[in-house]
Every structure is written in C-alpha cells, then in structure tokens.
Amino acid sequence: MKPESHRDIFEENLERLLQAAAGEQNAQFQERLVRAVRKEVGEQRRAVRRRLFLRGFPAAVAAAAVLALTWVLLNPKSESADWLQLMYGAVEIVDGDSSKLVMTSEPVRTGQSVRTLSGSKAQILMNDGSKLMVMPRTVLQITDGRRGSTFKLQEGTVSIEAAKQRRGRVLAIETPGARIRTLGTVFEVRLVKRPDGTRQTRVGVTSGMVELESGGDKVLLGAQTEGYAEEGRSPQRHLANADLDEMLRLLHKNAELAQQLGKKAGSPYLFEVQGAGTTAIWTAARLSDFRQAENGEYSLRLKSPASQARLFTLDGIEVPVRSQGRDLQIDGSAVSPALSTDTRLILELREVRGMLRVENGEVVRFTRPTGASDVITLLQFRLPGQASIEHIAPEPIEVNTTPNRMTITVAANVQGLEVWE
User: Fold this and answer.
1) Which residues partner with 313 through β-bridges?
2) Measured between alpha carbons, how far is 62 from 65 in angstroms, rounded to an integer?
C-alpha cells in the first residue's frame, strides 16, 4: 500500500475545514472557526498516534498551517480589525440596524459603532498599540481615515492613549463641529449637550500635543491644557493651571481694553498677598527681556529676591529655569527654536519682598508707579477674604469675593512695575 504523502494530509485537512466552516460567515464566525479547527486538529492528532511516529510531526504541522490559511482565506479583513474589550457593565457593537451585546471581547471594524450603557465601560485595543477607553453613556463610531484611524464621537466621553503614529499618519477624533488630531499622546474628548441643543467639544490633554480644529480655526493643545469648541465657532484654549489660565485671560482682556481705549497694552500683573510683607507675582515677560550670554544661557536679574521662580510658554509648557536670590538663568538648549525674542512667557515668582509695604504689622500698602498715559496695564490683587480696603485708585473694573479670597482688578496707566532690572 502506497504511504500517504504530506500533501495528501494537507489537502484532506483543508477540505474538511472548509466543509466544517461553510455557512458560518456571521458575527460568531471566528469563534466557530477556531472550535472547528481545534476539533479537526484533535482528530488528526488521534489519527497520527495510530500511524508511524516519524510521520506524525509533519501531519501536526500541516494541521496547524490549515488554521492560519483558512482564517486568511475566509476572513481577509482580519488584519484591519481592532478589538473591543468589556471592562464592566453592558456594551454593544452596533452594525447598521443590528446590535450585539459584548460578553468579553469582540473584533470591531470600520462602519461599526460601540455603545456603552449607564455604568458601563469598554476599551478598544488598536493594532498600532493605541488604546481608547469608552466611558459610560458613550457612542463611538469607527470610520475610515485616509491618513490614519478616525473615530466619530456621537455622544459621551472617550479617553485616548495614542501610540506614536507612523510618518504621514494621525489618529483623529471627530465630533459635531470639531476635529482632534494627534501623532501620539494621552488626552480625553468629551461631547457636552447644552440645554439649547447645541453641543460643545471639550479636550483635556495629559501629555504630548494635539490639534483642535473648529469653525475653520485651529489651536495646539499641549500637556496640562484644555480646549473648548462650540459648533461653528473658533476653539478656545485653557491651561489646567488656574493661575496660568488667569494670566492668559488678563493678557487677552488687557489687549481688548487697550484697543477699545486706543492705547498701548502693557504686561498685566497678578499679585497674591502671602503675609509678612511677601507676595507671589505672575507677569508676562519676553525672551528679549533676558540677557543672552556667549555660552547660550539667558539671564534675568530681579529687583527683589524670590524664593522660587518658574517660567512658562503661553501654551502652558514649562521652560526650566534656575533661581538663586535675585538671579534667574535659562539654559539656551532648553529654549525651543520656535521661540523668538518677541515671544511672550509667563513668569511666576514666589515670596517676593519689597513690592508691598507693611505698616503696624497689619496694614499693607502698595503704591503704583506713575507712567505714560498712552499705556494701559491690568493689575490684579488677591487679598485674604477678611481684608478691608481703605483706599484704591483707580476704581476697580472687577471685584470678586469668596469666603477665603477677595480679588480686585484695576486698569492703570503704567508701562510696568519694574520687577526686574
């Protein structure tokens, strides 16, 4: 009797698997195919034991090869599938008019949507290593992107941990009226429905950089920043650091007020009284205010010493600075080439002495310098909530009070307060 060849075994296995998998092209096809292959491999292993030992190894290899070949033949789109994992609760995959409840994990593809119910959460694991956490009460659709993966957030919140994308490709999240692109970062997108029916897109960035586009305009959002986009309107950027965010607001308000009055805009100042004659100061400086040395370092000499100094770009990115008494130094290698000498930076100083004068241990006086009448500068003072104002001039344009803090903002005709030499 002629021995059975390896080719005969391969063809026999393939024929049996195709017959076993016929008619199984539905949502449970993968699971059924795997069960069929395992069953066939088991039968082949039992048959091999009855044959010569030396012929058993090639037969097992052939059966395993059938698994890979059959899956590719019957499901050629598997390479593009991402996987949806149920974290907890109830999660559905919606495909047209039909939906399927996810019990553990399922592949998801272009055109399908993931819907989480109340108190539910799921995770999408992408082929490129990116992860999308789908929060409760969220509807997220998977769409085709010519330059990378694109998801449409129709409702709810999704947190994204984007892997570094290949050259020329981006991961994008679309919402009604907005589009967010990233090359690799960690961020969250939330779609909020307002009482009047309009929707607002909110983007919070943990690390990296993303681009938020809305109303025909774009803004870059760096780490620890937030972006807001109303449908049809330009996006707005806010810093997660409340003090820096307030400085951004003062900068914009100062520019608007100067334009209204036909004057030049000075650099606003924010003072927070810390007690014992010290104050924290935030103000805007330009890179040109620093002296550049031959070794590439930038230096700035303060008029009054500060216990701590920090420097930030208007995007909220911190620029490393060394502080010793009145002297600040920046390593030139830490300065981005994108920063020009006219670039504005936010300078934060802690426990500065000499800006306030304390009388009788309880009365704090601040005397603003005189300046040119063609400049307008906003000065904001943060005082303890129990403080009482004896006299202030000019009249405040803003006064906000809470049980612990009183905030007063005035518009003064001063060029600056000469914090540095």
Assistant:
1) 345
2) 5
